[in-house]
Design brief:
This protein is of the alpha+beta class. About 35% of the residues lie in helices and about 25% in strands. It has ten helices and 18 strands. Strands 8, 11, 14, 15, 16, 17 and 18 form a seven-stranded mixed beta sheet that branches. α6 packs across α7.
């Protein structure tokens, strides 16, 4: 079997993990490996049934088209009950081992059964009290007593380690090193390039979620019963963003050398957390979608991300990104642009806060919004105006997003 191309412009992948062992019998279309590209993690299915021989190691980077395993098509499929004998032999092995180690274990117990004494480096009770008061570890004190034990006099003459000296600790000092996946390495390189190659700024605002809370509470059961999906926050924010992008087209643009590319469509990338990290599937032509359309498409793409079934094509080509750090408890952040896009909107957690409304202090569910943008092609007027347009739509969704008819907009 050769590595298939996971997408255009991808020339190499990394064997993230083998799902089978060398010598296993595999069925056709059975997932045998997970491979990481610089855009996604994909499953590699067996092309035929047979006994597999692995030709690449986990963590190895292989070229597209390279042979990574062999499948013996002539090998017979093992039948049930062909391995009882080896299992029976293995079952006897522990008994034999127990007989071998039984006597040495008893001998060792007899050797350590001695009258209580202090081994080398062990402080006497009086010495331990003094050392504890000084904050000195007993292992740092040379014992002069019998068998090297630390005496009271040793403890009294011991000095506290100088400032900056390394002191021992009973806590774990273990560490581990893990190679970053191809996807994570590519992401790291892209994020560094964004910081170095764009004039990124962030502007902030806040929105009152009261009306959206009311709409969801009033219609969520009816909406779910009719459409089979929940009425979430993302449909409101997606609709608010597509409206604002049409009002401020430079936010829906990208830069290519000395040229600016404006898009007449709104392909919205939605950041979704999955088992392999953060993915950004794209809602194509989100400006044409209804509330039901946005919710159903987001649900479908999120399920693909969490099941590892998302394709490269479904994550490329977005013109603007929405990310929701609020689901993890973030109150405020400066989201980083998803290249080659020029702007990203960050949502955050919703907090009941006192705000002034018509001269009165009231408690409202409030959310901070953050918009990061590339100042090379988006000026302050466009960035601030865009975020204010989003705020207007979220504060008053019925009039701005639903045309004054909430039931019709929700297709109820």
């Amino acid at each position: 079997m050769k590595v298939p191309s996971p997408g255009e412009s991808i020339t190499e992948v990394e064997i993230a993990s083998w799902l089978v062992k060398d010598g296993d019998y595999v069925e056709k279309d059975q997932p045998i490996a997970e491979v990481d590209s610089d855009k996604a993690t994909l499953e590699l299915p067996a092309e035929q049934s047979g006994v597999i021989t692995l030709k690449a190691e986990e963590g190895e980077v292989v070229q597209v088209g390279q042979v990574v395993c062999l499948i013996d098509l002539d090998a017979a499929k093992p039948t049930e009950g062909t391995e009882p004998t080896p299992k029976a032999e293995n079952a006897e092995a522990p008994k034999a081992e127990q007989k071998v180690v039984e006597k040495p274990a008893i001998v060792e117990e007899k050797k350590v059964e001695k009258p209580t004494s202090y081994a080398a480096g062990t402080p006497s009770p009086a010495a331990r009290k003094i050392l504890d008061e000084k904050g000195i570890d007993a292992s740092q004190v040379a014992g002069s007593g019998k068998e090297g034990r630390v005496t009271k006099q040793d403890a009294e003459t011991a000095s506290v380690p100088a400032m900056g000296a390394v002191s021992s600790t009973s806590g774990s000092r273990a560490s581990s090193t893990t190679k970053l996946s191809v996807l994570r390495r590519k992401l790291a390189a892209r994020l560094v390039s964004v910081k170095n190659e764009t004039a990124m700024l962030t502007t902030f605002n806040e929105v009152d979620m009261s009306e959206i809370f009311r709409l969801r509470k009033q219609y969520k059961d009816e909406f779910a019963a009719k459409h089979g999906i929940g009425l979430g926050f993302m449909s409101f924010f997606t609709k608010a963003v597509t409206r604002a992008l049409q009002m401020y087209p430079d936010v829906n643009a990208s830069i290519d050398g000395d040229f600016k590319i404006n898009y007449e469509f709104c392909d919205i990338s939605i950041a979704v957390s999955g088992p392999k990290g953060l993915m950004v599937p794209v809602l194509r032509n989100a400006e044409t979608m209804s509330f039901r359309g946005v919710e159903s498409n987001i649900k479908e793409l999120a399920e693909k991300v969490r099941d590892g079934k998302i394709s490269v094509d479904e994550m490329t080509g977005g013109t603007f990104t929405i990310t929701n750090g609020g689901v993890f408890g973030s109150m405020l952040s400066t989201p980083i642009i998803n290249p080659p896009q020029s702007a990203i909107l960050g949502m955050h957690n919703i907090i009941q806060r006192p705000v002034a409304v018509d001269g009165q202090v009231v408690i409202r569910p409030m959310m901070y919004l953050a918009m990061s943008y590339d100042h090379r092609i988006i000026d302050g007027r466009e960035s601030v105006g865009f975020l204010v347009a989003v705020k207007e739509a979220i504060d008053n969704p019925v009039e701005v997003l639903m045309g004054g008819d909430e039931r019709k907009a929700l297709e109820l």
